[in-house]
């Protein structure tokens, strides 16, 4: 057996003793220093490249969000305007488009708001009483609650009477409705395919097909499907006496169309991951439960769901972050309309970029980054502990 | 045997290569490649693509037509030039944008080229298109390929059956649309539409509103302008005239196809030539499309008229609507003030200033070739080209139109309506101040879409447009914008 060589902690990496080190020339000491940091030196180019590629656009777009970009003779000019772009978005002429038109909360909306507030307070009290309590933690939780309440109030007042949701609330609708539907249907299909049914392989491939199609193609596909004059469903539509009505002409109808198209596109992603998770669950436990007389619902709720919970958690997180960036479908399917009814935040930023208002576009993108980061962090902090750790 | 076969083969190939090389050397632009950018047609791009091989055969230049969505054309040209990418040798674009491209030096001054080119027959191009579409600060920067006025088209058989006359005012337009809405106009047993106007966002909706509003905003002649006050550069939108126009625009939706808010002008053309609409508002394209048997079932059933007007106009001193009389509407006809809108101004070709001499000449020659009467006078009679008449000879000589499928009466009716618009002393000019794209394609287009979708009332929409236009003006400088606006109206020097 070969004993591993060991070096005393006091010796440098190169095996030079302190006495030997003291006798080294300047060049020797430099070589020694370089050798000690060789790992860092060798990996640094890669780190710098990655940092450059990831941080440079972030820094530049942050700078742009505080600027006014203009094409001028011989090139372009960038003028620093401070918080003007953010002020325009949150309090100025673009507030209506980003945040919406504030109406009055409907009774159900008001009740929901109160319930949401109570839940937040209960969670805060639980935290204060817990062993994990710290003042720093409390500070961040208070900020998170304020942010969450602001989003909730925004949703309630813009979706309430006389209110019109802006791009932010429209995006939240797309995200939460879309991801919930995609997860529900994806899980249902995955459970179906794990059953011992004929043509399992065929269904697996068929269910995956929408994911292979480019989102722009799906946009055009659904644009055609929702056309009630010349689309494939036009005869049925007309037979139902709805020839003079197009549901994508209404704000709600257009949003539903986008959610359906988004669900059609991304359900396969949920399906394939959940299918893998389901197929890797322990059959022994399921068999044991069956022998013990557990019903199908009980088995699903108490055995299967906990086993796929970690995968589900990650899956929902990935899709949620991705869904916040929705742009292709509303851009192609409804042009973001009617009006701005289906204009997501990313589409809004894109429209401003297309109008060459790069500063405003960057500011919108940064606000979206803040919202996405907040939602992701809250999700991770609250859900992960309950679903995965517990 | 094999050796002699090989020798003969080599000799033949060499001969072909030699002939090819000699032929290519004879052509002036051999080896020159021209990338011409325009919008995703098929209109406008079609004639460029169709005639590119002919131009190549004549000159040796290779012409590639690159298309981008209309909503991105302005930015594509601007960013390509500003960043020095220079992907395109030529641009076919809206002449109203030219100021934004000329001032930074992106467009080649074509004045000497036009002066040395007899084949283009410059004086045959209508004066308005030579001056408004082609010229900036007295220099020629673009070659007109198209003439643009919006007009109203109607189904003559449908109106006759209903005992109605073509509308002369926008109130009459609504009345006619309402009266015939639901009639079966194409014999398929289904009810059809009283009015079809493309209202989709990021398309052409923002021009249609000015075709409706111009007659109520401008009454003292072309130099009065329809967009801004000529002393303060305050937008002429938050007033009863523009608000009434918005209401009319919205009211037409009730007599249109159910998805009118999501369809563009290409869709309404298909609906109209498919016999599904009694009235439509469009550029000159409908005329040739309606006589094309491959695309239309309404040949000789289409009439065209100057855009309807108003019997009341805006009094700019009081901000109120006043009835038309000799003072308030000096150009009115039978008490109706017309202001035909030269929307867009006609697709025109510009040459990048970042080219070598040979490529510049080749690009100019391509646009000249497209605009010469031998090509242009045929292309304007073909609906799918999207090119509308802009040369004097195109108005005077009916034969190409008759050869293109028009009856003589239909050609006279169609050209008459365009001629009435072109010759109107109260013609409304499109906006051509710096950054007009932001005023129109960004703000006006978005607020209109929001208004049509019910997110704003007419008054709120007018206030929104006013506030956002003023924001742009303040940023760019009110005095500079005013000076530029006055120049485009011909009030102080030529722009």
Task: Kindly describe this structure.
The complex is a heterodimer of chains A (390) and B (495). Chain A is 71% helix and 4% strand. By secondary structure, chain A is mainly α. Among the domains of chain A are: 103-162; 167-342, MetI-like fold. In chain A, strands 1-2 form a two-stranded antiparallel sheet. In chain A, strand 1 and strand 2 (75-80) form a beta hairpin. Chain B is an alpha/beta fold and 495 residues long. Chain B is 45% helix and 12% strand. Chain B contains 20 helices and 15 strands. Chain B has a five-stranded mixed beta sheet. Chain B has a four-stranded mixed beta sheet with strand order 8-9-7-10, with helices on both faces. A two-stranded antiparallel sheet of chain B has the order 4-5. The A-B interface holds A 68, 71-76, 93, 96-97, 101, 164, 227-229, 238, 243-246, 248-249, 251, 334-341, 351, 354-357 and B 71-72, 75, 78-79, 82, 100, 103-105, 190-191, 200-203, 257-262, 437-438, 441-442, 446, 449-455, 464, 467-468, 471, 475.
List keywords for this structure.
heterodimer; A: 390 residues; mainly alpha; MetI-like fold; two-stranded antiparallel sheet; 17 helices; globular; disordered N terminus; B: 495 residues; alpha/beta; 45% helix
Shape of chain B: globular
Structural class of chain B: alpha/beta
Taking strands numbered 1, 2, ... along the chain, how are they ordered across the largest sheet of chain B?
2-1-3-14-6
Computed structural class of chain A: mainly alpha
- Largest sheet of chain A at a glance? 2 strands, antiparallel
Helix tally of chain B? 20
Oligomeric state: heterodimer
Question: Overall mean pLDDT score of chain B?
Answer: 90
User: Which percent range fits the helix content of chain A?
Assistant: over 70%
Biggest chain pair interface = A-B, 36 and 39 residues
| CA-CA gap between termini of chain A | 44 Å
Largest sheet descriptor of chain B:
5 strands, mixed
Please specify the SSE layout and strand pairing.
The complex is a heterodimer of chains A (about 400) and B (about 500).
Chain A: H1 18-22, H2 26-36, H3 38-65, E1 67-72, E2 75-80, H4 84-90, H5 95-98, E3 100-101, H6 107-129, H7 135-159, E4 164-165, H8 167-194, H9 200-212, H10 215-225, H11 234-239, H12 251-279, H13 283-291, H14 296-323, H15 328-333, H16 345-354, H17 358-389
Antiparallel strand pairs in A: 1-2, 3-4
Helix pairs in contact in A: 3-17, 4-17, 6-7, 8-12, 8-14, 9-12, 10-12, 12-14, 14-17, 16-17
Chain B: H1 2-26, E1 33-39, H2 45-59, E2 62-68, H3 70-82, E3 90-93, H4 98-102, H5 111-115, H6 127-133, E4 135-136, E5 139-140, E6 142-144, E7 151-155, H7 156-161, H8 170-180, E8 193-196, H9 205-217, H10 240-252, H11 265-273, E9 277-282, H12 286-290, E10 302-306, E11 312-315, E12 320-323, E13 341-342, E14 348-351, H13 357-371, H14 373-379, H15 392-396, H16 399-403, H17 408-423, E15 428-429, H18 436-452, H19 458-476, H20 478-488
Parallel strand pairs in B: 1-2, 1-3, 8-9, 13-15
Antiparallel strand pairs in B: 3-14, 4-5, 6-14, 7-9, 7-10, 11-12
